[in-house]
Amino acid sequence: MCGIVGQLNFDNSPVSPLILRRMTDAIVHRGPDGEGHWIDGNVGLGHRRLSIIDLSPAGHQPMISADHRYILSYNGEIYNFRELRTELEAKGYWFRSQTDSEVVLYALAEWGTDALLKFNGMFALAFWDRKEKNLLLARDRYGIKPLYYFVNEKKLIFGSEQKAILEQPAFDRKINKKALLEYFTFQNIFTDQTLLEGIHLLQPGHYATIDLSKKSNHLRFVQYWDYHFSEPDTPVDRREYVEELDQLFQQAVFRQLVSDVELGSYLSGGMDSGSITALAASNFPYLKTFTCGFDLSSASGIELAFDERTKAEAMSAKFKTEHYEMVLKAGDMERCLGELAWHLEEPRVGQSYPNFYASILASKFVKVVLSGAGGDELFGGYPWRYYRNVGAKNFEEFIDEYYSYWQRLIPNTEIAKVFGPIWDDVKDVWTRDIFEDVFSNHFNSLEKPEDYINHSLYFEAKTFLHGLFVVEDKLSMANSLEARVPFMDNDLVNFAMRCPIGLKLNNLGEVMRLNENEVGRKTNKYFQKTSDGKQLLRDMMSKYIPSEIVEGKKQGFSSPDSSWFKGDSIDFVRKVIYNKKNKTYDYFDSNAVLSLVDEHLHGKKNRRLLIWSLLNFEKFLNEFNL
After folding, report:
1. Predicted confidence (pLDDT) per residue in 123-169, tens digit
2. Confidence (pTM)
3. Pairwise CA distance, residues 237 & 305, whole Å
4. Helix ranges restricted to H, 174-308
5. Beta strand pairing status for 322-328 and 288-294?
6. Is 2 a catalytic residue?
7. Among 2, 292, 336, 499, the one annotated catalytic
């Protein structure tokens, strides 16, 4: 796990060693164990190393092939690297190290971009072919590892984080107003845009190439992989599916235990992290586990269930782990927000500061931590979302229904008012079109309710889960911590995509048989958080974790900010958001914003996500001098 940077000058001017070093210095937190730089005229690659596998100098990067033709700067872990190494050795390749990095280097040399489909893991990489004068940039299937780039007629600049690109003296820092509208609609960015004008995020499952031998500065993008959720054509045997899932889940966890440094696991109190911990603990006596809880003394309503420390402690006792926990209070958000905004670089999904504190806790004891991310998105963990569109009559109706649900921050009816100061610059942005474009590559027919739910799963894996991965990467690497996600093992993902909806959701049949004569909103009861989802996963996990965990309602990792923003943190909210001289109001109409925030403070609406995003955006503007 590391950080990469690079530069390619199209006019053949030499890359500056000083600027390349400044780029790697900007991401030193991603790799405090070593640094490397390689320059050949107009091409430069840089690297920061976090040593995980083969801690010796043989793992130094940028890594150069034995014939000096290929140079690699790589960030990630390929968990099947030993199998690939055996294949390459049979073809005559000789290895100097025990790293997966060297396997990636020679796999790309041997198979070209076809190697990307062979990799089972997470990665972002830059690969330069000196003979062909060709640069390859690539990102893993699921977008676990980020890769940003800026390109104009003179140069291409790229890095694991945007702050590396900002070290280029010629870069003009400006807010991307259209991306800002996208974010404040969805609390996420679905396109390749970022909040900094000109900087793009290479999309998951994509690679990009530039061929200088053809005297071209044109980036060519190729999508080499995508999710495809579908219903099976053959009869379903639930027992066989449970057995196959169990085998694949064990395989996924055990693959990701490979490490030459100590490894731990998050243990939230839910079944995903609990099952991963159960298997990991069977291999590592006294595995270290980590939980963040919350002070609920001023919480109310459903927030009283947000602290899962008791459940986590019970599972720690069962699995005999060495357990550590941290308790977050209302003031902890205020204390970390500046540092958080700097590392996060731009707001993304959710209220991410609890994840930041969790990574701080884990990094005090281990360099690698296992995470349960992905289980919900692959196996149907959010049924109250999917049930909203099972009755859609066609694709357009499905889009309308789901699009309205995913307007998480500012509804369309308020957009023009809120963005008043910049409305002329963004009024041609149709966020519904952005939403619909997510499905441009998912060609399922839409004939029955299961098809619409598979469309929902596709959407959430492509957008919500990807946003979670961007946040997880930034906040773990801020603390020089590698976070691994066993649910995103290739074989396990392939299984989840062909798993029938009837084995994922418990109440789909009942929703489809709604009584049309029932009084009131008939589907309201299905829009509540329940234990309906992940049924097959629950069946499989029952052998690893206690029944009360398996049968529990879905509980996300969230702090009780709805109450804190109206209570313990209200002074901080007022200090930041109610200050009309803040930079935020260069882009937003202050009266329109404060009208929405007032609704929360007076208990009329739950606007906690909007308040969090406004606080984060203001800090982002200040931290990056925008």
Report:
1. 999 999 999 999 999 999 999 999 999 999 999 999 999 999 999 98
2. 0.94
3. 36
4. 177-186, 238-255, 271-283
5. parallel
6. yes
7. 2
